[in-house]
Amino acid sequence: MELLEKLEILADAAKYDAACTSSGLDRNGRPGTVGSTMMAGCCHSFSADGRCISLLKVLLTNCCVYDCQYCVNRRSNDLPRAAFTPRELCKLTMGFYRRNYIEGLFLSSAVIRSPDYTTELMIETLRLLREEYRFGGYIHAKAIPGADPLLTHRLGLLADRLSVNIELPSAKSLALLAPDKGKEAILAPMGQIRDGITVSREERRLCRHAPRFAPAGQSTQMIVGATPESDRHILTLTQSLYDKYHLKRVFYSAYMPVSTSPLLPAPRDFQPPLLREHRLYQADWLLRYYHFRAEELLDESRPDLDPRMDPKCCWALRHLDFFPVEVNRADYEALLRVPGIGVRSARRILTARRAGPLTFEGLKRLGVVLKRAQYFLTCSGRAPRGLKISEDGLLRRLIALEAPALAEPMPEQLSLFDPVS
Q1: Does residue 60 contact residue 72 with C-beta atoms inside 8 Å?
Q2: 294-316 pLDDT, tens per residue?
């Protein structure tokens, strides 16, 4: 099979793997090597000078011994099969890099023969790239659950970032749709990678030339919409993964119908839950950067995120007793809870108010999104002039900002926060 034909098959087979993440580390180019890595480099983004920074996202092989019902590469699926040799993939990567097509490599694989054999092939590929081809660019590798811990450790010494896909949100769904895999087999390498990163950082404090193990951390991915778990279940699992395994990122992948299995949604009637995926990413952002907890966003009475507005606005509407927030006195944590105020604008507010009281016009210049924030803020005890709106009216206005098609006609407006005259 021609090399480009293999590339077409294996790049297409890798399209369901999420790889849009920052490289997470700096590594300058050295004499005799090819490539470097920048902290802000990421897949499918743009640099300051307008260049697209991208990764070669490809599978080593799509020949798989597993029969996971949700996976396009399952062994029972009738599709073209291919496999790169380690040297073929190295030549392809270096050729693309020298042509400035890519900034790095995202390498995953189906399980051929066994997890150990597959991991050995991936290690040989990365070893050739690092040692023979002297490639210093970014490499993200997928660790294979069930592989020997020593092999996973060797893989982490060659890659910048490792990830282990948790696949599905519950052990019950995993047992039903992927009987060859188990929860413990997936979580074990996550714990090993976490411990390896911790040990590596301690060693480098003592000796700066000590080898680095997965210096950009680890991530995972789960499929959303193939099984009946609620958003609350998914976010609680996400919170646990961040707390226990110190993940850099959890990716959510809306299920795409690739199987006619009766255990999965029927392809004819099923629409990929792309809006649900979007809301989960917004909630995930609140967990990572806004100091929210999963139990604050959803509970037993509200197990799913509202598709009509972002989770932060939903939380604010359920906690109107927390508002309005006085922008000239509130601490950083309180400011982060205000819809329309992000991490950067909250820090700007703390800096700017040292010079004097802030006004709504001043907040706008600091980057605050006033079309949301104005309903939840006061400046020196004053609300925006003439702002009068009921609780129901506020709900409709916030929905109209994100989903105009779902908004209803505005009711008669009453006062929610009486402006000070």
Answers
A1: no
A2: 999 999 999 999 999 999 999 99
